[in-house]
Amino acid sequence: NKEAYLDLLVNEMMPKIAEEELAEYVDIFCEKGYFTVEDTHKILAAGKNHNLIPKIHVNQFNSIGGIQAGVEHDALSVDHLEVMTKEDIEALKGSRTMPVALPSCSLFLSIPYTPARDIIDAGLPLALATDYNPGSTPSGNMNLVVSLACIKMKMNPEEAINAATVNAAYAMGLNETHGSITKGKQANLILTEKVPSYGFLPYSFGANHIDAVYINGKKI
Predict the structure, then answer these.
(1) What is the reported pLDDT for 206?
(2) Which pTM value belongs to this model?
């Protein structure tokens, strides 16, 4: 009973989650056969009432108006985007919502990849993430994500690395403190082995060239 479940979320679970500070975001999968645009409006509005930041997983298989709903609720990000229309891209222009591509999901499910060039060439930013979950992407390998973005989505290495770092930080609401090696930000960074260029990282997709990892300025 989907309606009863939505009512449970809105009337019982969200207030408790907010009271106990168990989550920062509210997210919904807006797609045919799952949750409708109307469901999306209901859940995101309820989440915002409890100071939960809205996000949407949307346009994985169909374009049904979910992106427009996300923009209306000032969603921090819209994730998946394997299917994008001109109207979807236009809806994102002028918004504060970050488009997020999940290429390892496309690899695992053998579905189309997010049309990165259409999004970027329209003047929009793009972030990259794994969609790590047991159902459609059982991998948290960001090295693979960056490689797939270049190989399958026609992003250049600069775009892919930018999408996986500072743009990804924005999609989590962390760009003021994370996502780039910048004075005043958290010193969370990786050092690679000697490579010919940073473009070699997505090129050598089967290798891990990380030499050291620093968290809060300390090597781990």
Answers:
(1) 87
(2) 0.96
